[in-house]
Amino acid sequence: MSSESRKLSQSLTASQLVDLLGEPVLEIIGDSTVVVGSVASLGEGAAGALVFCKAKGMKAQGLIRASRASVIIIGEEVEVQAIVGQCFLRTTDPARSYVRLLRTLFPKPLVAGKKFGPGVVIEDGAVIGAGCRIGAGTYIAACVTVGDHCEIGPNCSLGVEGLAVAYEDDGTPLPYPHIGSVLIGDRVRIGANCVVVRGILENTRIGDDTQLGNQVNIGHNCVVGPKCWISTKALLCGSVTLAEGVMIGAAAILNNQIAVGRGANIGLGSVVTKSVLAGQGVFGVPAKPLATMRKFR
Question: How confident is the model at residue 98 (pLDDT cuts 50, 70, 90)?
């Protein structure tokens, strides 16, 4: 985001930001009439900027002291004192509060119909829901159904066949026909260069509000529940099942036919060879449970 694009369309006071936030602010510390005209990261925030700090304790205090931003959103456990020219907004989740404000201050244009980038190929028979955005160079096969208000990045392949073979007696490979479909829910976001393989017999599914980073591979027959978060270069082999709210770190690999319970967390780079219980955090090669694993998004 360039410095020009970080400017607000109009200046706002801290109290006006509170009104826009749409969630309770636990405490306002300092002058609520302080004005902001831009957004920035905590490290580069200058006078007139809105920033947030998700750090805690002494680390947070050091970062805040070094910032010249006018409005800083902080968490419940951060100790601050009122400073001339600055205002602190205390919320339960500073990152979430900041994202909510950014989405309000920099809204994406509404898509009345469907918006396709150059070079998009959509085969006859595919169904694309209302308000979808599809990036340049993406291929969508006839077996794919995409729900409403989805965002699909450039150079994705949805509904392609995966690697599954039987063998003749002489060792000649006999590829499985893929006759299943790909069913994608509403408000799903798929990053650039992702692959979603169609089912062999059963359908490959991605639930509502799930987020896929760039270069993610979803294998045949996988069932990804709603509100999952799958980071860049993660790989789901065939017939993996993710319950609601599963979080998968960058470059993690999940072996065939495992199930991951609701709200489980899989650390970056992990190789998961066994099913994971609901709420469990696993990490490593092979992945093993960790007693204390925080959410990493």
Answer: very high
* SS3 (DSSP) at 61: helix
282 pLDDT exceeds 50?
yes
Report whether 67 contacts 56 (CB < 8 A).
no
Range list for CATH 3.40.1390.10 in the chain: 7-105
- Residues 216-241: pLDDT tens digits? 999 999 999 999 999 999 999 999 99
We find that the CATH architecture of domain 7-105 is: 3-Layer(aba) Sandwich (3.40)
37: Cα separation from own chain's centroid: 27
- Residue in 220, 238, 243, 282 annotated catalytic: 220
In this prediction, residues 122-141 reach a mean pLDDT of: 94
Report d(CA 52, CA 60) in Å as an integer. Answer: 10
Which of these, 185, 192, 186, lies nearest to 206 by C-alpha position? Answer: 185
pTM higher than the cut 0.85:
no
**3-class state of residue 63 by DSSP:** helix
Asked if pLDDT for residue 293 goes beyond 80, the answer is no
Strand order through the sheet with 71-74: 7-13, 35-39, 49-52, 71-74, 87-90, 27-30
3-state secondary structure of 119: coil
> At the top level of CATH, which class does the domain 115-290 belong to?
mainly beta
Q: Is 5 helix (H, G, I), strand (E, B) or coil?
A: coil
Residue 150: alpha-carbon gap to chain centroid: 13
Give yes or no: 149 in active site: no
Question: Which residues lie closer than 8 Å to 103 by C-beta, 6 or more apart?
Answer: none
* Domain limits, CATH 2.160.10.10, in the chain: 115-290
Helix count (H) and strand count (E) of the chain? 3, 33
DSSP H or E run through 224? strand 223-224
